[in-house]
Amino acid sequence: MSRMPFGMLVATALGVGGWWTPVLQTPGPRAEASVAGDDSTARAAWLPGDPGDSLYQAAREALNQRDYRRAADLFAEVAAKFPKSGYVADSYYWRAFALYRLGSTPQLREALQSLDTQRQRFSQAATRGDAAALERRIQGELARRGDPAMRAYLDSVAQTVATPPTPPTPPTPPVSVTPRTPPTPPVGPTPPTPPTPPTPPSGRGCDDDDDTGSAVLNAIQQMDEARARPILQKVLARRDPKSVCLRRQAVFIISQQDTPGVEDILLGAARNDPDHEVREQSVFWLSQVGTEKAVSALDSILRTSKDQALQEKAVFALSQVDSPRAQQALRTYAERPDLSENLREKVIFWIGQQGGKDNDAFLRSLYGKLKEENLREKVLSSLSQSDGPDNARWILGVAKDGAQPIELRKKALFWAGQSDAPLADLLALYPTMPGREMREQLIFVYSQRDEPAAVDKLLEVAKTDPDTELRKKAIFWLGQSDDPRAAKALQDMIEQP
Fold first, then answer.
1. What gap in Å lies between CA 486 and CA 475, rounded to an integer?
2. In this structure, how many other beta carbons lie within 10 angstroms of the beta carbon of residue 124?
3. Residue 464: its pLDDT value, please?
4. φ, ψ for residue 168, nearest 5 deg
5. Using CA atoms, how far apart are residues 472 and 379, in angstroms rounded to an integer?
6. Helix (H) or strand (E) holding 383
7. At what angle do helices 276-289 and 262-272 cross, to 10 degrees?
8. For 62-107, how does the pLDDT look when each residue is reduced to its tens digit (9 = 90+)?
């Protein structure tokens, strides 16, 4: 007989207890050490009989125990004592990694020297790709600490990331081309579901060049905003295919800045970037900025964009901003008759999730303006989730209104049962409700309530209702009850002569 509130069902479906708070995941040691198999674990020894095998194993053990000072010294000894060992190439990387973990400025510079030696002497080492990412992180950290040489170097590298490559000359098309069969148009939209927040960009899924650019952007994130912003804007202005991952990351970094102009940059990306994920990420991060200017930007997307997917993201973003102006923008949007039914459903859903007297009053007034029964049902379900007797009484009024379609009245009864409608009001409806369909729905509503009085009503119907079919319905739902009185009543019915 117990029931889960609809709001909890939605939260369960989304996999969250409260709205998700996005955090950019900075690559950890695994990003620098994909060969390692663990976040800070060097590859197990693989050359038995090698003169440096025992020393490498001791260095690896120190690293596993996070004794980074000892690990750095032991990895250095591998190259010093056994220069022809097969472990030397990787030992330079792991020494740099241990020094990076120690973290002082002299140790970071020493780590860069170790990586430089590996690059010059062992360009084909298994850890070279990881070494490049580690090098960028160390450079970014030194730049953040004010190292002038590192800052100048990163500035120069960042400019190469911000500048798109020269596009290749397109090939000359053949004289005759066989026309392609046009694609089959997609099937209609799927039933509406609450949109899930986008995941923060991570820079993954890019090729090697973009992985380098992603590492540079991570370093740029450590710069002061005045120096970083022009570079990020150049990245966002790129349109070559290899820059897509970089633009996604740049949008996030821009959204974390706390200086004027963030909203304009994100709005420009939302409107103009050719990549749909960049556009949608830009809209989402506008909601996290949370300023009135960000609300204006989101509202402008609702008013001017023709991209329904982008409009859905803007609706979600506005629903996350705690601002009267944001709520009014959603209410105005919900009244537009030119929107698709699917989109209006989502607007009504998010208005209902916000709740509040103004939103509740708006949804009650919107109900009479809607022609689509599906949208009217969405209003009923949204209002049932909002606490307060006003909504429950209003939903019951819809259920009692004979001028309403029978299916809507039945749904109103259901949502009234799920809301704060007093059970006494629901019980009083049974003798006054004409027609078997509505009474069947009331019997179901009683079965979903936990109060003893609901079981009493089902027992009464099962024993005394003149309609045999209604008695059968009540008996069925009594069989689903955990109330011991229900089991006793069913037993008595069986045992009656």
1. 9
2. 6
3. 92
4. -70, 155
5. 32
6. helix 373-384
7. 150
8. 998 999 999 999 999 999 999 999 999 999 999 999 999 998 999 9
Contacts of 99 (CB under 8 A, 6+ apart): 68, 72, 107, 108, 110, 111, 114
Token pair for 392: 């429950």
Beta-carbon neighbour count of residue 387 at 10 Å? 11
Q: Is 495 left (phi over 0), alpha (psi -120 to 50) or beta?
A: alpha
Q: Write down the residue that tokens 């190259």 correspond to.
A: 79
Smallest CA-to-CA distance from 27 within 207, 243, 214, 161 is with: 214
Q: Could you give phi then psi for residue 224, rounded to 5 degrees?
A: -70, 155
Q: Which two tokens stand for residue 229?
A: 């912003």
CA distances (Å), origin 169, targets 162, 166, 172, 173, 304 = 21, 9, 9, 12, 36
Place of tokens 């029931």: 3
203 burial (CB, 10 Å; 0-12 / 13-18 / 19+) is buried
Residue with tokens 């010093």: 80
- Segment 252-263, tens digit of pLDDT: 998 888 888 999
Which residues, including other chains, have CB under 8 Å from residue 292's CB and lie 6 or more apart?
A: 323, 325
Measured distance CA(92)–CA(72) in Å, rounded: 9
Backbone angles phi, psi at 41, to 5 degrees: -115, 120
Distance between CA atoms of residues 244 and 255, nearest Å: 17
